[in-house]
Amino acid sequence: MSEACCGPDSGNKVPAAPQKDKQEDQDNNEGWLSHWPLLSALLILLGMLVLEFGFSYQPPFPFNLTIYAIAYLLAGYNVLAMAFRKAMRLDFFNEFFLMSVATIGAFCIGSYSEGVAVMVFYSIGEWFQDAAVNRAKRSIKALLDIRPDEVTILREGVTQVIDPRQAAIGDVIRLKAGEKVALDGKLLSETSVFNTAALTGESKPDTKRKGEIVLAGMINLDHVSEIEVRSLFTDSKLSKILEMVQDATARKSQTQLFISRFAKVYTPIVFALAVLVCFAPYFFTVDYNFQQWFYRALVFLVISCPCALVVSIPLGYFGGIGLASRNGILFKGSNFLDVMTGIDTVVMDKTGTLTKGVFKVQQIVTAGLEQRELIRFAAAMETNSSHPIAKAIVAYAGDQAQELKATDVQEIAGNGLKGTVEGKTMLAGNVKLLNKFGITYPAEIDELVDTVVLIAIQGKYAGYITIADELKEDAKQAIQQLHQQHIQTVMLSGDKSAVVNKVAGLLGIDKAFGDLLPEGKVEQVQKLKDEGRRIAFVGDGVNDAPVIALADVGIAMGGLGSDATIETAEVVIQNDQPSKITTAIRVGRITKQIVWQNIILAMVVKVIVLSLGAGGIANLWEAVIADVGVALLAILNAVRIQRMKWS
């Protein structure tokens, strides 16, 4: 985006919905008013052209020069100033210097109207480009910056309205129907229905129950609800999303970087060719006319301006990021939109990615203990873990989970927990944990398909608890969509191989590996990379962070996902739906397709008009119309991404 001819930045914080239209109208009015010099220049140019071609009258010299010079300066003072500043830094090969040389050259040979026209229409094109880019930035920010400016807090039975930044962890928010949640928290009311579309792109209302997490940005659709604040304003998931989006617009794709490098080489070459167009014919033609060939060189300079490429390409990526955001997918940089287009293998975790991660206790089998006693011991240990399986046991135990206290608890990655309860050494985990400590258990346990938590007390097997998870509704659809795009699917899990193979069979996954420690997942992904596969890894747990970092693209489930995983991933799916994986790939592909359409359009038109200009067929008027026209077509094509609807 050029630094010249730019209106005031209207991409500041977007107000709440009722003020939005009013604010946009105000921004538009300020944009028009701020360009009064350019609009005045356009009116002067049109008036002079009407006199010349409508009434066959042209003011005598030097009046015509004076009038055109005023219009020229009104339209191009920003461009001239920028060209001068860059020239002072010995930077001559840029669009500002190129336009300045071409238009001043037109004045030197008496083509006043054409010189003014080039500057006026170039500046109008820059104005439209800047407006389109600002609108793209605004739409992304407006899409996500949906935090309310105030929140109702209940303190000591009295409600008070405060700034969300002043709320503390533990405060209770009172939320009326229709109000937005300002801070992440835990629902205290029995049930409440929320609109989560702004965060997840999902229009279907989400029913939350007491104790479940409610995120900032959700809208309460039900009765008055109460929420206990669990994170500060700056630590909410929505605040982190905003930071990620701002970072995303700064991270350039390989295509953008290529175009930037290309422009640095392209512009000096164009200057050199323009010089050749002007002077080389002297050695090959008999009736060489300097003014004629100098004019052709000016046409060459005007049409060669790379602004269509420089502006429309980042605008296309802004549009892609915005389209993904509206569908509940957050790309942390436009470079990852490009990478997604090359993915040929999607590797997925099981729990929390393809399954809901909501486990329920199915069966309790003891050996020498009462069931109640086994649950009390198991719950005392599992209260120290945030794993979904641990939460299922604690939830099943209820109040019994508080009866005993576990000490010296340590988590053995991929195996389970070790600690002390009532002075007794205790283990709670999978079969690998008991094997690690040389504890025998009944052989039939190895044949169980459901997830099993084995309990050992004082070095002896004490029983087991079976726990079952549930597949996500769109998990099978996600796998089918990936196969339709000829993408291989692989599932990696720390769960038992029997469970993993059962889930893989139900979903139709190509390959599945179970009983994996975190390092085992890394090894499997590395093997795929060694085979030359382009990999996206999808996960949600803390232990998925290393393998997400290793993959070409790491995708985190943003709802259930841990902060470490979300921080490491390049793409975040806000509503935890695996079917969004294919949506992310499609957004990447459509963005890249439109970007390359713009590149090809700009280059083909420029080559044609450059050839016509060098041959004396195209004049300055045609050159500027072609240049501005290509830029506007490229911009409209890029803006098309922002308007796409996704089913």
From TrEMBL:
Domain (P-type ATPase A) ranges: 147-246
EC number(s) given by UniProt: 7.2.2.12
Assigned keywords, A-Z: ATP-binding, Cell membrane, Membrane, Metal-binding, Nucleotide-binding, Translocase, Transmembrane, Transmembrane helix
Classification via InterPro entries: ATPase_P-typ_cyto_dom_N, ATPase_P-typ_P_site, ATPase_P-typ_TM_dom_sf, ATPase_P-typ_transduc_dom_A_sf, ATPase_P-type_domA, Cation_Transport_ATPase_IB, HAD-like_sf, HAD_sf
Main location: membrane
Transmembrane region(s): 35-53, 65-84, 96-122, 265-285, 297-324, 594-614, 620-639
Catalytic activity: Zn(2+)(in) + ATP + H2O = Zn(2+)(out) + ADP + phosphate + H(+)
Enzyme class: translocase
Highest taxon in the source lineage: Bacteria
Compartments (UniProt record): Cell membrane; Membrane
Ribonucleoprotein recorded as keyword: no
Region span, Disordered: 1-28
PANTHER family found in the cross-reference section: CADMIUM/ZINC-TRANSPORTING ATPASE HMA2-RELATED, CADMIUM_ZINC-TRANSPORTING ATPASE HMA4-RELATED
Family, as annotated: Belongs to the cation transport ATPase (P-type) (TC 3.A.3) family. Type IB subfamily.
Record's protein name: P-type Zn(2+) transporter
Gene source species: Chitinophaga horti
